[in-house]
Amino acid sequence: MRLLRHAAGAVALALATAALGPAPAKAEAWDIAKAAAPYKGTELHVIFLDRPGYRAIIKLLPEFEKQTGIKVSYEIVPYENTREKEVLNFNGQGDLSIALVDLVWIGEFAENGWIQPVSKFSGDASITDPNLNLKGFFPLLLDAFGTWGGTTYGLPFDNYSGLLFYNKCMLKSAGFDKPPATWDEVMTTYAPKLTDPAKKQYGYALQSLRGETQSADSFMRMLWPFGGSLLDKTFHSNLMSKESQAGLDFRQKLMKYMPPGIVSWDHAESVNALAQGQVAMITEWSAFYPTLTDPKTSKLGDCLGVAPEPAGPAGRLPALGGFSLAVASQAPEKVQKAAWIFIQWATSDAIAKPYVEAGGVSGRTAVYDDPAIRAHYSFVEPMVASWQKGVPEFRPRFPSWPAISEIVAEFGSKIMLGEVSVEQGSKEIGTRMEAVLQKDGYYDGKKKLLQ
């Protein structure tokens, strides 16, 4: 089931933005130093990931701290450990003052009261940028990453679309003058010609490490393009549908063109394999573009190509991923206000271009209208096209997702390893997933089916 589409989400977004009031047509420049003066010396605590978007904001932090006197202390944590670490901090009333919120954590974080609504702060002119302009974000991103139940909690940060990154030189040597447009072409034409195990060269790599990488980046990525889905309209498993089975069968067959041990590969291994010429194609987040263009981490140079994810029988439905930054409810009031100032700055139009130039991916629309940005960064056009069109949220955002993700990760990995068949694994996921949803009240009217 396509749980949330851009069109449906726009209704909630409209309600959220209306509650915050219209954006001023032409606002004065924000005196951030004046806004931050009462909070000078405040220390904020946040978790960052070891990804380009976070390295980019870290590069810009000295300017923020110089302007505001607010100190930002960050801990870099592997993605797979981030949610658990944040939840433990919230439950233990720890020191986090800013929450890093994946789009599939927003329901859990909001319903548990761990994050504050934006409206708590946006009405206070003394700490709010007059150019905040929530309508300046891509509506898809603000809705998916920051909004829950019609209320906006966080502002989009480090957001991305799934893209096809490929080695143009390898494709040219194999007789191809353009990337594959469909998954069928990947399987039947491109991957076979680009795979030579004797040379340790492979046509494609799909990051599939057990955890959220397996459940989202691998398992779910192959459902949507084939017309499948995790759940149907009644929140029961849809994995036994012919479309879902076709997508998972396709993934299994495609493995013969992937490197050995792919089930233990995370994003870093997949990106590095393309960067070093070991694989010809990967489907990865747009956030990894800086890694693939950096001569210190990549041998690709002019051989790097970027295109939309291939289309399946159901059309071109790329993965959607990313985060928002939200104020943590556990923080003292003074710290919360300082956190709000930082979140606005980190996601603002004002630093969008420097952020992109430093290696980040902004959720603001205006920066991608800049001809220089479009010309210099080849990932921009396919990424923006997917955000403007709107894509289904291929991972459910409800609070039950973390428990379901563990189930999908376990049996998705077992399917790839051949420990269970696609059919057996799908049935097991369905049974266990429905038990979680039953316990959480999705079949007795206690929970709303759609958010």
Automatic annotation (TrEMBL):
Residues 1-27 form the signal peptide. InterPro entries: Bact_solute-bd_prot1 (IPR050490), SBP (IPR006059). GO terms for cellular component: periplasmic space. The keyword Zinc does not apply. CDD domains: PBP2_TMBP_like. Its main location: periplasm. The keyword Signal applies. Belongs to the bacterial solute-binding protein 1 family. This is Sugar ABC transporter substrate-binding protein. It comes from Lichenibacterium ramalinae.
